[in-house]
Write a structure and sequence with these properties.
The protein has eleven helices and eight strands. By secondary structure, the protein is of the alpha/beta class. Helix 2 packs antiparallel against helix 8.
Length: 336
């Protein structure tokens, strides 16, 4: 009886120890091959590329690889930022356009600080606060293009069109992404995780994943790139009051697919990333704590096949994938 009790107690203690080790175990360290990588980063807005992958970009270049950055939108619909930057309470379409140009210049300056030149940055000019709606109801080439209520545009600026004549339709968004993927022949791609709570982020994830799938189907012999997903928006995460010297950890309530990896930055990489973030002055003006919450000694990525992507709600009535509208109400608001 005593032996049985001791045996049971030993088992319970062992199980508790295993559970504690599991709970305290952080993400695995991200291991990058020794060969030179061709990194391609897709960012929904100017600053997402630095927030999520400023360290990864540096590490790739330092190893003899290359890094290219694609900006889906120019972040031109962030009303709070426009009012601050343009010093107006009633911004006009011209103000929103000027603000988008400002954020593009900030991206160029920020990326230069982590080793990415202007030639390696591509602005696609799709509409901020409209990309998710395009994925929801403006997909077909026969559909009337989406018109931005902010800039008044129905198509990207001519200088930013990869394919001449594209408009704000889903079919054109994907065509441009496919063209970029084909031209870059990347070995490593970083893009938003579909669980990101910002509509433009999960919409970017949808478009890029669809383009990758189409490319794989059309060119089955072409080597598939390694795909890393990043997270920028998740309810209550990151903790804005946490010590910036503490490593960034995944959200406790994250339910998405894939394995978390952490890229530990060197002191030099972390310092360069902070300098890059400082270049996004318009965002530092209105949300400094949020940007600085990503100036950590590491970066987080998720790797693995996405088999059951969550719904991507644009607003209370429009969704880019199927799912209940309650999910949208839990998304972060006001951030562009």
């Amino acid at each position: 009886m005593c032996r049985e009790w001791l045996s049971a107690s030993t088992l319970v203690i062992a199980l508790l120890a295993i559970g504690c080790r599991f709970l305290s175990h952080g993400p695995d360290e991200l291991v990058l091959p020794q060969r030179a990588e061709r990194l391609l980063v897709f960012a929904p807005h100017p600053d997402d590329e630095a927030l999520a992958a400023g360290g990864l970009i540096q590490r790739t270049i330092a190893a003899g690889g290359s890094a290219h950055v694609v900006l889906m939108t120019s972040g031109d619909a962030f009303s709070e930022g426009v009012k601050s930057a343009e010093d107006t309470a009633n911004p006009t379409p011209r103000d929103f356009r000027d603000y988008g140009s400002l954020r593009e210049r900030e991206t160029i300056a920020g990326m230069q600080r982590v080793g990415v030149g202007r030639a390696e940055i591509k602005f696609l000019g799709f509409p901020d606060d409209g990309l998710c709606l395009i994925a929801s109801k403006y997909l077909s080439s026969r559909k009337k293009p989406f018109k931005s209520p902010y800039t008044g545009r129905e198509e990207p600026p001519a200088a930013e069109q990869v394919i001449r004549g594209v408009t704000y339709r889903g079919v054109d968004v994907r065509r441009e992404i496919e063209a970029i993927l084909t031209a870059n022949d990347s070995t490593l791609i970083a893009l938003p995780h579909p669980e990101d709570h910002h509509p433009e982020h999960c919409a970017t994830s949808i478009f890029v994943r669809e383009a990758l799938a189409a490319l794989a189907a059309g060119h089955p012999s072409r080597p598939a790139p390694r795909v890393l997903y990043y997270l920028v928006h998740h309810h209550g995460w990151p903790d804005l009051d946490e010590d910036p010297r503490a490593p960034l950890r995944p959200p406790a309530d994250f339910r998405g697919e894939g394995q978390w990896h952490s890229l530990t930055l060197t002191v030099t990489e972390a310092a360069a990333k902070r300098r890059a973030l400082d270049a996004y002055a318009s965002q530092m003006e209105v949300m400094p704590r949020f940007l600085k919450a990503f100036a950590r000694p590491n970066e987080l990525f998720v790797e693995g096949r996405i088999t059951s992507p969550p719904e991507c709600w644009c607003d209370e009535t429009h969704v880019a994938t199927e799912g209940p509208p309650e999910r949208y109400r839990r998304r972060l608001g006001g951030r562009r």
